[in-house]
Design brief:
heterodimer, A: mainly alpha, globular, B: about 160 residues, alpha/beta, about 45% helix, about 15% strand
């Protein structure tokens, strides 16, 4: 990659960020601090641009410029009227250490992208191959997808890479890795910003540091795999749901944005579809059990989800490839698998063992992490918060869903777990840190109790 | 009367504060340690020039140009290795090379033994062009009825079926 390509990559990123910022500013409450809109900018902007690229294909620049003008005009108006609250930032020792850790990691991240420009195995064999198909094959890409590995996989990351290439005018193989890196960093920003608002800055920065110090997370982010982007969309969605529940006026537009980012998760990997289904089920529970109004949560969420879901459905219907996990199934084997108790025990013990090692840590952070939460004290109010309840249940059900997929896999069970468990754990890791942080009492509460 | 429990409570809170501070220090140190492990794993990676796919891109570059010049800008191209000429023990490296070749050659479909890389059967007439990756040594002879369009010198050969 040369300097010329880097300029155009930056322009492509800035355009995506402006589109994302415009939508965030439009949908997030006016009184929220400005940095909260900033942290959601990249994931939302990347989602918008990915959909535009696949839906519009050729006039992609025209559509993006039109939306850019709208977005800039709207953001400018908000700035001019001073509707977005500014928040001053005073550096703390922990904040400085956090920035230091980021500066310590960044050269290694950029070097890894440079040394593995096409990504690791799945990166080039699946995601970059799809990106090349989108970029090189013209309108025939859908028909040709069946001749590539996992042609049924959703196209958020390939479309992002192909869009970057359209801006550069040439194929820059590292583009997918930059998208992964930006989404990985965005997840840290979202984790810190949302915990900072929902709890306190100290806890937020510590949780951010734990995520920052997860080597496997960075391996996947720079390998051009879609797992870190997916984990970012899981986190963004759950954090928005939690923020909505704790917001003073319960603005439904936050849930519209959460619906959109959940749709982005479904557009990133098939596991995102499980996430969407789980969220919809969990959000329906109050409607069924407590006769809550549809318009309270589910309707605004569905409104945000509608457009991404429509694109996913059209994609799944028009790309004639069946998922390998489904295609290799037969009912006799499925019944055998589901009734074999030894498989349950094997998967459960594997989950427990691998949960401690999936991050490829030199030292796993769990003991001090749980000590910290214990020392803060568990916030019992958390289970009364509807947003947090949704987030906890969703995470648990997605994990249960992964368990069932392994239970019913047609592949050799151990091989399947060895090949994929660490990636699935990475999907849930940033969200787990958010929810673990929410379990703890905030500094303010602890001080007040003293 | 209330003094003792209040002191206990204060002590408990200060103990909590100490545990919290120790945990935070430990987490900061652990995070830096883990980042340093990530750094050391990255800085030992080989230079990009020796990356397998960078090498393959270079090997296939001329083949893409020749195929485009020949007017064959899409469709199928056969892929063979030494095992397809002289049947022998199956080698995983052959499949790996086929996958890499497919990645480089998109949107052409590299067909081996009537199948595309994910195992999807390809029907229709036999492809006019063959890409042969003789990565483990050149064979004594090429398949009959084909002319050599390009030989990379590194074991990669492009063949074309002779007109009947």
């Amino acid at each position: 990659m040369n300097l010329y390509s880097s300029y155009y990559l930056v322009i492509a990123f800035v355009v995506a960020a402006c589109l994302g910022y415009g939508l965030c500013v439009y949908l997030l409450p006016r009184l929220w601090p400005r940095h909260l809109a900033w942290v959601y900018t990249a994931p939302v902007g990347f989602g918008i641009c990915s959909f535009i690229y696949v839906v519009f294909r050729r006039p992609v620049f025209t559509v993006e410029i039109a939306l850019l003008i709208l977005s800039l005009a709207f953001s400018f108006q908000r700035f001019r009227t001073g509707e977005l609250a500014r928040k001053s930032w005073t550096p703390t020792l922990l904040g400085v250490l956090f920035c230091g850790a980021l500066a310590f990691a960044l050269p290694a991240l950029l070097t890894r992208i440079d040394r593995i420009p096409h990504g690791d195995w799945d990166g080039w064999a699946i995601w970059n191959t799809h990106a090349r198909l989108l970029f090189r094959a013209g309108p025939e890409w859908k028909a040709l997808a069946r001749y590539t590995f996992h042609g049924d996989y959703p196209e958020l990351t390939p479309a992002l890479a192909a869009r970057f290439w359209r801006y550069v005018g040439d194929e820059v193989p590292e583009a997918g890795a930059f998208a992964g890196l930006i989404l990985g960093l965005s997840a840290i920003a979202v984790l810190v910003a949302s915990l900072s608002k929902l709890r306190d800055k100290r806890l937020a920065i510590v949780m951010g540091l734990v995520l920052l110090g997860t080597p496997k997370y960075w391996n996947h982010a720079t390998s051009q795999y879609a797992d870190v982007p997916l984990s970012a969309y899981f986190l963004v969605t759950l954090s928005l749901i939690c923020l909505h529940a704790q917001s003073e006026w319960k603005e439904k537009s936050i849930l519209v944005l959460a619906g959109f980012t959940a749709g982005c998760a479904g557009w990133t990997k098939n596991e995102g579809l499980l996430f969407i289904a789980t969220l919809c089920i969990v959000m329906s529970i109050p409607i069924v059990l407590k006769r809550a109004k549809l318009s309270e949560q589910l309707a605004p969420f569905a409104a945000g989800l509608a457009l991404p879901l429509a694109v996913i459905i059209v994609f799944k219907l028009t790309v004639p490839v069946r998922n390998d996990l489904i295609e290799n199934q037969n009912s006799v084997a499925a019944v055998q698998h589901l009734t074999d108790l030894s498989r349950y025990a094997f998967i459960a013990s594997y989950f427990v063992r691998a949960s401690i090692t999936f991050g490829a840590w030199g030292i796993a952070p769990f003991i001090p992490l749980f000590l910290l939460i214990g020392a803060r004290g568990i916030d019992r109010q958390i289970l009364k918060n509807p947003g947090c309840r949704i987030a906890y249940m969703t995470l648990a059900l997605v994990l249960a869903g992964y368990f069932v997929v392994y239970l019913n896999t047609a592949q050799d069970l151990k091989d399947h777990l060895d090949a994929s468990f660490d990636r699935l754990a990475i999907h849930l890791w940033p969200s787990f840190l958010l929810l673990l942080g929410l379990c703890a009492k905030s500094e303010r509460t602890t001080v007040a109790q003293q | 009367m209330d003094g003792a429990p209040q002191i206990d409570r204060r002590q408990w809170h200060s103990t909590r504060r100490v545990i919290e501070s120790i945990s935070i220090v430990a987490l900061v140190v652990i995070s830096y340690w883990n980042i340093s492990i990530f750094r050391s794993s990255v800085f030992t990676l080989p230079a990009p020039e020796s990356n397998e796919l960078v090498v393959q891109e270079e090997r296939y570059k001329q083949i893409r140009i020749i195929l485009a010049k020949a007017g064959h800008t899409k469709g199928t191209v056969a892929f063979i290795t030494n095992r397809d000429l002289i049947p022998g023990e199956r080698k995983e490296e052959d499949d790996f090379r086929w996958g890499q070749g497919q990645y480089v050659m998109v949107p052409w479909i590299l067909v081996r033994n009537g199948r595309a890389v994910p195992g999807v059967p390809i029907t229709g007439p036999a492809p006019e062009f063959i890409i042969a990756d003789f990565w483990d040594g050149m064979p004594a002879s090429y398949p009959k009825g084909f002319e050599t369009l390009y030989d990379s010198g590194s074991g990669l050969v492009l063949l074309r079926r002779n007109a009947p």
